[in-house]
Amino acid sequence: MAGLDELLNQIPTQEIAAKLGADEGEVNSAVQQLVPLLVGGLQHTAQDPEHAAGIENDAADHAASGLLDGGVAVDQVNQDQGADAIAKIFGGNDSGQVASALAGGGAGNSQLIQQLLPILAPIVLAYIGKQLGGGAAAAPAASGGGLGDVLGNIIGGALGNKSGGSGDNPLGNILGSVLGGGGNKGTGDVLGNVLGGLFGRK
Q1: What pLDDT is attached to residue 77?
Q2: From CA 170, how far away is CA 176, in angstroms rounded?
Q3: What residue ranges do the domains of the chain occupy?
Q4: CA dihedral defined by 47, 50, 56, 62, rounded to 10 degrees?
Q5: In the prediction, which pLDDT does 157 show?
Q6: Distance (Å, rounded) from C-alpha 1 to C-alpha 152?
Q7: pLDDT averaged over consecutive 10-residue blocks of the chain (202 residues)?
Q8: Over the chain, what HEC string results?
Q9: Which residues contact 163 (CB under 8 A, 6 or more apart)?
């Protein structure tokens, strides 16, 4: 779905790779995995109305910062705010804990994930804020424009046209799709369980 493609297009992977001294292909692959994961985490957290209101406020603040205006510059990204956002999204776990858990579940390089999470979180939130505020990256007219609709549009892009999956584990489905699991639920289920632990849903 366009929402996911538009969001991924906001992320300057070449600049991020240069800043981190990492291989651009590896960074691009990690971004393709982590962005849907972050949106899935936000969707899970937003099931609580109080948390949903907090996400909307944070998204509006990041959008108002101008981070997406004229293209993202990595040096403009406030990684301290990004680290705070990761803790809010993943049940109080910091970037290192999330990266370690995901790497242990097969999501890739723990060090790179830890470096990317606080960079990506503000970009994701700014994009969501733009959609909620009817900015340059506004939600499609068919959407009601609420937080659930915006997140659902992006999640729909992560899942593609898959249907009939295990609805009780949406994060597992997202990760299974993004990590190339296709119809095989194994990797997605493992990582879904990892995320379940981070969210305190063991």
Answers
A1: 93
A2: 10
A3: 2-166
A4: -110
A5: 58
A6: 10
A7: 78 95 93 88 85 90 90 91 91 86 76 95 93 56 61 69 44 46 45 59 43
A8: CHHHHHHHHCCCHHHHHHHHCCCHHHHHHHHHHHHHHHHHHHHHHCCCHHHHHHHHHHHHHHHHCCCCCCCCCHHHCCHHHHHHHHHHHCCCCCHHHHHHHHHHCCCCCHHHHHHHHHHHHHHHHHHHHHHHCCCCCCCCCCCCCCHHHHHHHHHHHHHCCCCCCCCCCHHHHHHHHHCCCCCCCHHHHHHHHHHHHHCCCC
A9: none
- Per the CB < 8 A criterion, the answer to whether 113 and 34 are in contact is yes
**0.85 cut: is pTM over it?**
no
CA atoms of 65 and 85, how far apart (whole Å): 15
